[in-house]
Structures are given as structure tokens and as C-alpha cells.
Amino acid sequence: MADSVNTTWDELPAAVRDAIEQHTGPVAKSSPGPEGMSTKVRLILDTPDGRVFIKGTGPRTGKLIRERLALGAELAPYVPTLSPPLLFRTQADGWHITGWAAVLGRPADLTPGSPDIPKVTAVLAELGAITAPDLPGMWSIADYWGRDTDNPRILDGSALVHTDPHGQNFILDGDRTWLVDWGWAARGPAWMTSVRFVLYLIEAGWEPADAEHALASVPAWAEAPPSAITEHAISSVPSWEEAAVEQPDNERLRTWGDIARRWADHRAGIMRM
Questions:
Q1: For FRET with 69, which of 4, 54, 117, 138 sits at 20 to 30 Å CA-CA?
Q2: Considering its fold, how many domains does the chain have in total?
Q3: Which of 101, 128, 154 is the last residue of a domain?
Q4: Whether residues 179 and 111 fall in one domain
């Protein structure tokens, strides 16, 4: 069977369903899980012990995406208070599947004035104190994004960085706020997750200065070298704009090029003051 995005339970090969049910028990019902860009299956399963979220890659998935799925699973023990528990990992018929405790919450609202913002920044504050473990697939911010700057060492660091902290990856579940999808985590400066979050706040409608102010309670951001943040903000703009030129029909790339430019102009203005 060819891989397909949003593969249903019935579309999975029998061997894969059997491998999953060895961990979950009989699956009574399945429903689509939250959307994801890389994985081929994302489902919520109703099982004898409760609801389980599974995500995984198919036999035609490239090595990089399989490695990202594996890294997300291997990081689970290092972020037990931030990420839902990993329940199992299994493989069959070329499929790689991870199973997680299903979180029955909602995505965070990142629009200006949202009461969710303090809950999200509390998660960012906790994350900023976590050291990145030495795991296969853990990439370095300095080695990759440092190519955009004349001074890549500003991106050195040993902290665990979540590179995609958008609202859909923060799940509010009662008194808990979870941060999910760790497959693209990296090693870098503790302030980098906040930097990425600023861009998502601007996308959600915040002015750059207000977006930065919203992070005032996050120690890693408050203690970050302003010059390093500014240099990174300015040096990252050309790569966004070049990508938009290369893919002229990709409206999202154009939007992000504009966001990156707005933030860089704001940072440059701060440094001139």
C-alpha cells in the first residue's frame, strides 16, 4: 500500500495494527488526531485503558523524517512535566509508530490579550532550564542556523530548544499546559525557543515590541544578550526572503519573510537607540 497522509486505522496494514494492539489491547474506535506535516498516520485510539494518540511514518518515508520521529520519542524522559507520556514504540511492515497518552485539551490561543499567554510562557521558562541530552539526531543550532551569520558562535549553547513553538503545539488540558512535537528539537542557546515564539506571536497579530514584552517573565529571554538576538534576527531574514523567491506560489513563505523583516527592523531600531 502506498503511503498517504492522514492514514486511517483501517488503511494500516494488518501487521501494523496487530503490533499496536500488542501494546494497547483491542482498539474499539479510532478518530483523526491533530494534524502534522511529517508523519503519515496520526490517530486517537479508544482502548481498554483509555485513549492513546499514535503517530508514525510509513515505508516510503525518508530517513530524516524517521529520525525526527525517533528523536521525539527518545526525548520524552527528559521533558516529563512538559510532554505527555510516551507509552510505546513499535515497528512492522516498514512502519515506525509511537504511542502517547492522549491529551484531551485545546491548542493555545496566541492572539494579543489571550489569557493563554502566561500559561505558555511558564512552559517556556521551565524549558529554558533543561539541558539538551546527548541523543542521536540532536542537531546544533549553531551548526545549521549559524550559517546565516558571520558570527555563528552567538548560537552556541547547551539548552534544549523547541524550534516550532506555535500555538498548535501548546495544548491546554485543565491546569496543565503541554508542549508537544519534539522531533525537531535542537541544542542551542536557552533563549532560542523564545526567539522562535516571538515570530509566532507576530504572526498571531502582536506588534514586535509587545511580543517581546510578553516574554519578560521567561528567564532565558530576559537574560539573553540583546546583541546576539538582534544579530540572529537580522541575519535570518535573507534566507526567508530567498525561500519566498524560490517558491513564489507559497504564500506562507512570503508571510514569514515579512514577519522576519518586521522583527529584524524592530531589533535594529533598538540597537540604534
A1: 117
A2: 2
A3: 101
A4: yes
Tell me 131's DSSP state.
B
Does residue 8 lie within any of the structural domains?
A: no
Does a structural domain hold residue 5? no
Residue 214 falls inside a structural domain: yes
In a domain, 4, yes or no: no
Structural domain boundaries enclosing 144: 106-272
Q: Which of 4-18, 174-188, 213-227 is the least confident region?
A: 4-18
Q: For the chain, give the secondary structure using H, E and C.
A: CCCCCCCCCCCCCHHHHHHHHHHHCCCCEEEECCCCCCCCEEEEEEECCEEEEEEEECCCCCHHHHHHHHHHHHHHHHCCCCCCCEEEEEEECCEEEEEEECCCCEECCCCCCCCCHHHHHHHHHHHCCCECCCCCCCEEHHHHHHHHCCCHHHHCCCEEECCCCCHHHEEEECCEEEECCCCCCEEECCCHHHHHHHHHHHHCCCCHHHHHHCCCCCHHHHCCCHHHHHHHHHHHHHHHHHHHHHCCCCHHHHHHHHHHHHHHHHHHHHHHC
- In this prediction, what percent of the chain has a pLDDT beyond 90? 81
Residues 162 and 228 in one domain: yes
Reported as a single tens digit per residue, the pLDDT across 177-213 is 999 999 999 999 999 999 999 999 999 999 999 999 9
